[in-house]
Amino acid sequence: MKKLIYSILKEKHSEKDIKEILLAHSEVKFVSLVGIDLSGNDTDERIPIQIFLDDISGFANGAIQTDGSSVVLPGIATLNNAKLDMMADVDCNWYIDYNYENIDPETELPIGTLKIPCTLLHDHIPVDSRSILKRSVKTFKTTVLNLFKENPSSLSSFDFEYKDIEKLSLTSATELEFWVKTPNDKADIEELSTSQVLKEQYWSKTKGNVRTALEQTLLLMEEYGFEPEMGHKEVGGVKAKIGESGSLTHIMEQLEIDWKFSDAVQCADNEMFIRNLVKETFRLNGLDVNFLAKPVHDVAGSGEHTHVGLAVKLKNGKRVNIFNSANNHFLSTLGYASAMGILKNYEVINPFVSATNDSLKRLKVGFEAPICIVTSLGHSVDVPSRNRSILLALIRDLDNPLATRFELRAPCPHTNTYLALSTLYMGMLDGIVYAIKNNKSEDDLLKELSKKPGDDADYLEKDRAYRSEEDVFEFYTEKQRADYFGKAPKTVFENIRALDEYPKKLEILKADGVFTTSIINSFRMATISRWVTEINNRLLNNYSQEIRKFKMIHSAEKALDLDLANWQKVSDLRQSLMKDTYSKTSLFSKIKEASNNENYEELSTLQIQLDEQIQELRLYYSNYEKNLLDI
Questions:
Q1: Residue 431: strand pairing partners
Q2: Which of 12, 108, 310, 552 has the most CB atoms at less than 10 Å from its CB?
Q3: What is the reported pLDDT for 487?
Q4: CA count, 13 A, side-chain hemisphere, 379
């Protein structure tokens, strides 16, 4: 496949270069403009390449249009004003998506589609997720550089001055976790959970078509220039079986792929393309890939830890990570301030990070997924923290100063990375503005970040704590966690409601028009609509199928009193969940009624009750089944 071209780098986006490249690669038959809506969905269409070649400048200026009903922009692209212009983005890399199942008879190469990220314009205003991230990055850079210029002392701990800076760099990266399985195989939850506890899969050897698909994916990533760093097994999974033909069957395991950081927008673009690359490569090897955050109950979910860093490139060519301190501190003033900004404002960041039922299912006690707004710095400056129980991790490599960064551990594979990064940068910026304008030192900020609940603070909230070097799941009670670090939302509604409950914090997202009121309202409408639809059309249907499988399996003549009592618990709960009578309404029907009445407060409460009772039912049935000798 060496004849194929995999990317057109942003340095090659002149009309002359584009034409030369594409005319030399006739296997590229189509072009597709990729716009990202507020739910993180990407558009995909097939436009014959000749149309693009005939009017490259037109594509760059919004010559292509789409119907707003095809993307998630409620309240913006309405039925009476639905037209969206799609404007190609020339300031990023373009990738070619190959269809290896459709071979061009002339070239004998797979047919390719040039994927071009684009801006979605409504009434000439950018409204897509990529545009929000671009505005966030621009606002961050402009504001911080102006602060440096106006406050020279803010750079006093570094060996350069404002006049030495060529540019400010926001670097980002994500880690992609996913489940792989043989099509139609069902999970044995107890077997998966046992394997997880015994750590039988984590970092173990990949085999068969899983190994082949993983290796092919990493090799393709190299061809595209993504610079993969590692692919390995994660904690979830069970040992596959060998079929009659000698191939592996009943595959069920969790993998992770990591690649090199890049600038913020390119990072999100890369992740979007790599997810599709992974899915297609594994599919060609006869495997299903699942990017759900919590596809299997009681087993580790899939995260997508998101990394953010901050550096300057100096005019002499030197690159400096300005999260690092030269004063024997965990972080510089800018590093402490960035962490404080994220943590203080996380209530309005979280709705954009965890926006689905699935994402919140993963954030549970006991699965190394964060539920508290808290960070860890380390027990000493000389020993970097490895606390996996916190939300915002400080990553430091004492031998590599450029590696210092923050890792947000809450995102999942379906998090809209464009919006998550946008909110993180606006949170960081709020903390940096506070620190520089108030001339805060590293000692000042470390003290405030390490405060106890009730301690006075100039920026952070008085009744909260924000740092813990302990395992927050083991060291604190549930009440202490909620009191010290805030109560974690249990439903999408509880999470999205924060946009109303914290109006002052919400204003930080609106600085310089990064997020507008109309975009926030549109995101809110889309999130609530998806939440309600998922509950009624997916969650209840899935639970119905599961409940119907919990059938009586004992025989009357062999059942003991305990068996009858165990079954009665199962039967009563099944009836309460699903079965209506003239005198009693089931929980399912109450949920449907709350949905129809748009009583979201009640729906949220009922969803929590539903999840708790389903867990009870699973336990009851497991106890009932295990006590039977004959089934």
A1: none
A2: 310
A3: 87
A4: 5
**Alpha-carbon span 164 to 21, nearest angstrom:** 38
Residue located via tokens 């704590």: 465
Candidate from 239-253, 385-399, 463-477 with smallest mean pLDDT: 239-253
Residue 61 sits at the vertex; the CA angle it makes with 416 and 517, to the nearest 5 degrees, is: 40
pLDDT at 248: 41
Q: How far is CA 59 from CA 51, 73, 160, in A?
A: 10, 22, 42
Across 518-545, b (16+ Cβ under 10 Å) vs e yields ebbebbbbbbbebbbeebbeebbeebee
Cα–Cα distance for residue pair 598/589, rounded to 1 Å: 14
- Tally of residues, the chain: 631
Query: For the CA atoms of the chain, what is the radius of gyration?
Result: 26
Q: Given this model, what pLDDT does residue 204 score?
A: 66
Closest residue by Cα to residue 32 from 77, 69, 75, 86 = 86
Mean pLDDT rounded to a whole number for the chain:
90
Q: What residues have CB less than 8 Å from 142, skipping those under 6 apart?
A: none
Helices (H) then strands (E): counts for the chain:
22, 20
User: What is the C-alpha to C-alpha distance for residues 116 and 44, in angstroms, rounded to an integer?
Assistant: 10
Q: Which residue has the tokens 């210092």?
A: 404
Sign of CA dihedral 411, 415, 417, 418: negative
Cα separation, 490 vs 75, in Å, equals: 27
Give the number of C-alpha atoms closer than 13 A to the C-alpha of residue 159, restricted to the C-beta side: 8
d(CA 615, CA 619): 6
Q: How confident is the model at residue 2 (pLDDT cuts 50, 70, 90)?
A: low
Q: DSSP assignment, residue 154?
A: G
CA dist 128 and 72 (Å) reads 9
Which of 181, 320, 189, 316 has the alpha carbon at shortest distance from 253? Answer: 181
Q: Are 165 and 146 in contact (CB under 8 A)?
A: no
Helix/strand/coil for 10: helix
The tokens for 534 are 């998922």
pLDDT digits (tens, 9 = 90+) for 159-181: 999 999 999 999 999 999 998 88
Tell whether the torsion through CA atoms of 539, 541, 547 and 553 is positive or negative.
negative
Instruction: Pull the structure tokens for residue 265.
Output: 């927008």
Maximum Cα–Cα distance for the chain, whole Å? 89
